[in-house]
Specification:
The chain is built from eight helices and five strands; from the N terminus they run H-H-H-H-H-H-E-H-E-E-E-H-E. By secondary structure, the protein is α+β, with helices and mostly antiparallel strands. A five-stranded antiparallel beta sheet has the order 4-3-2-1-5.
């Protein structure tokens, strides 16, 4: 005589309406959780990647300084952190070229802003065109003393208090990244900027770095 395998009662009778409603409710709760958390997780990943980009740029600047008696490049803005690239202190590969663009504002996005989105331009060739480098050429801002020698002295005396690279504007959802002259990346939270400086990002406000910026940490850099 064959033995019949027992089948769970729930499978035999199927799901009740109440059980199905509970399953749907759980799926809905999980979906709502993901809708809230996924953008935050993606932004945090972009913030971390941007910090790594700035650290890599700093390594290039450190190599450049070692070959120039410890001096910082005299170029201003974007060309400040691109000088090691220009002088061959950074290997000119696609991977290295892309560190000059924020993961939240990629090379392709900058191409659109530069009205070059339809052109087939290699990122290495793009950065090699030194004479064309100008405002908005990358998504980062570089050290610019705006003709004030005191700012250079400040960088020499207090590198940890002087910003040399930053996001060009509010690229990320929750914070702006900036790097001081000691090679340490920092995050300035969006909520703190709104509370302390009265900015209203939801109403279209933005942080425009440069000498006239209301936030002191971003006054020593420019995206020019």
């Amino acid at each position: 005589m064959k033995l019949l395998r027992s089948v769970p009662a729930a499978i035999k009778r199927g799901f009740t309406l109440l059980e199905m409603m509970i399953v749907i409710m759980i799926i809905g709760i999980l979906s709502s959780f993901l809708v809230v958390m996924v953008p935050e997780m993606l932004d945090n990943a972009n913030l971390t990647a941007s910090e790594q980009n700035m650290k890599r740029m700093y390594m290039g600047l450190t190599t450049w300084r070692q070959n120039h008696n410890g001096q910082w490049p005299r170029d201003k803005g974007i060309k400040f952190f691109l000088r090691p690239w220009k002088d061959g202190m950074v290997e000119k590969t696609e991977s290295n070229a892309k560190m000059y663009f924020s993961p939240a504002e990629s090379f392709e996005a900058v191409m659109v802003y530069q009205e070059m989105g339809e052109e087939d331009i290699d990122v290495v060739d793009y950065l090699n065109d030194w004479d064309s480098i100008g405002p908005g050429y990358t998504s980062y801002a570089g050290f610019n003393p705006q003709g004030d020698r005191e700012v250079f002295r400040q960088l020499a005396k207090n590198p940890g208090l002087t910003t040399i690279i930053s996001d060009a504007h509010m690229i990320h959802r929750f914070a702006m990244i900036y790097l001081t002259g000691d090679g340490v990346p920092h995050r300035m939270l969006k909520a703190d900027m709104e509370d302390e400086y009265g900015l209203a990002f939801d109403d279209g406000d933005d942080v425009i770095v440069g000498a006239g910026c209301e936030i002191e940490e971003f006054q020593t850099v420019s995206n020019d």
